[in-house]
């Protein structure tokens, strides 16, 4: 019988092998482009998990940070900044915005952060729409230079796919390490009981601000990769609707779970494309599926997978 850590390691290697084999199965074109968007969403939702899943604060500003990172990258590349500098610029821009937004708001309890981030998202959208000489307004920015390192530029969806797989893997590994660190335990304690965490000596304001800014950096880096791989951005990709969708992905996948965050983002990105053959009815089925999952599996896909795994272990021990 395999030990638990051996099972986990085997699962990770199987997921990596499946991810590497995907381009061979679907080829290039539209299907792989959807897979790239799913990977980008997974990075953004993984960042959202820090503040919402682990720290218990409702954040509807993740789409705004995503857009801020994308527009920072696109504008920098248009001005001739080397691509290697753009992830740093995107991270710096979202960290600054997160600091300005989070310092006054995260000192308050309840749903103040949710209301503030909704307003922040709308402010970012309005700035993008009306600052037309810089952002292109409602028309967006086109012909954005791609990922270029030492004179080599990535071309095609397949090359960008493997870059995104590598980035998501590093993001998940960093999240895993952070979860089992002192700051990760402080985040969980803050979520479980903020008062008890403070009595234990945890600076809950600093903990929430750290989680908020780490999540913003994840979104900013994803925005950088989005602009560089899609070569076109517009305000429509970073609206309040997108913010709600990102939150839905986290809830569906399983709040607090790294694997669940990724699974929820990938599933809810790909599922609408699989159902499009149904015409307008796909929206109905999509909505019913989301409602059913929330009602019958409020812990998300992660709890379903954990339940199936536990059953398999019990069956193996009984055999």
Q: Tell me, briefly, the overall form.
A: globular
First-last Cα distance? 11 Å
Low-confidence parts: none
Strand percentage: under 5%
Task: Give a topology summary.
Blueprint: H1 4-26, H2 30-54, H3 62-78, H4 86-105, H5 112-130, H6 132-135, E1 148-149, E2 152-153, H7 156-179, H8 182-192, H9 194-199, H10 204-230, H11 240-253, H12 258-274, H13 281-296, H14 301-318
Antiparallel strand pairs: 1-2
Helix pairs in contact: 2-7, 2-8, 2-10, 2-11, 2-12, 3-4, 3-5, 3-10, 4-10, 8-10, 11-12
Describe the structure.
The chain has 319 residues and is mostly helical. The chain is built from 14 helices and two strands; from the N terminus they run ααααααββαααααααα. It has helices spanning 4-26, 30-54, 62-78, 86-105, 112-130, 132-135, 156-179, 182-192, 194-199, 204-230, 240-253, 258-274, 281-296, 301-318, and strands at residues 148-149, 152-153. A two-stranded antiparallel ribbon has the order 1-2. A hairpin with a 2-residue loop joins strand 1 and strand 2 (152-153). The longest helix is centred in the last third of the chain and has 27 residues, at 204-230. The mean pLDDT is 86.
């Amino acid at each position: 019988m395999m030990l638990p850590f051996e099972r986990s390691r085997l699962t990770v290697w199987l997921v990596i092998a499946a991810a590497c084999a995907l381009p061979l199965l679907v080829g290039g074109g539209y299907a792989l482009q959807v897979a790239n968007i799913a990977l980008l969403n997974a990075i953004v939702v993984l960042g959202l998990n820090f503040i919402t899943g682990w720290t218990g604060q409702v954040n509807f500003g993740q789409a705004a940070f995503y857009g801020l990172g994308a527009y920072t990258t696109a504008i920098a590349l248009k001005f001739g900044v080397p691509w290697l500098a753009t992830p740093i610029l995107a991270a710096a821009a979202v960290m600054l915005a997160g600091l300005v937004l989070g310092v006054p708001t995260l000192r308050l309890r309840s749903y103040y952060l949710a209301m503030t981030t909704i307003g922040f998202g709308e402010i970012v959208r309005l700035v993008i729409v009306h600052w037309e000489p810089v952002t292109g307004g409602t028309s967006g920015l086109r012909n954005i230079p791609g990922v270029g390192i030492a004179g080599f530029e990535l071309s095609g969806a397949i090359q960008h796919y493997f870059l995104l797989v590598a980035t998501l893997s590093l993001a998940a590994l960093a999240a895993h390490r952070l979860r089992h660190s002192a700051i990760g335990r402080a985040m969980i304690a803050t979520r479980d009981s903020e008062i008890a965490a403070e009595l234990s000596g945890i600076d809950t304001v600093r903990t929430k601000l750290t989680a908020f800014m780490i999540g913003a950096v994840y979104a900013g880096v994803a925005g950088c990769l989005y602009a560089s791989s899609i070569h076109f951005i517009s305000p429509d990709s970073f609206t309040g609707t997108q913010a709600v969708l990102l939150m839905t992905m986290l809830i569906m996948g399983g709040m607090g779970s790294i694997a669940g965050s990724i699974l929820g983002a990938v599933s809810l990105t790909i599922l609408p494309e699989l159902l499009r053959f149904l015409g307008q009815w796909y929206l109905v089925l999509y909505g019913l599926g989301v409602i059913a999952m929330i009602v019958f599996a409020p812990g998300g896909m992660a709890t379903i997978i954990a339940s199936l795994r536990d059953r398999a272990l019990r069956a193996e021990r009984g055999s």
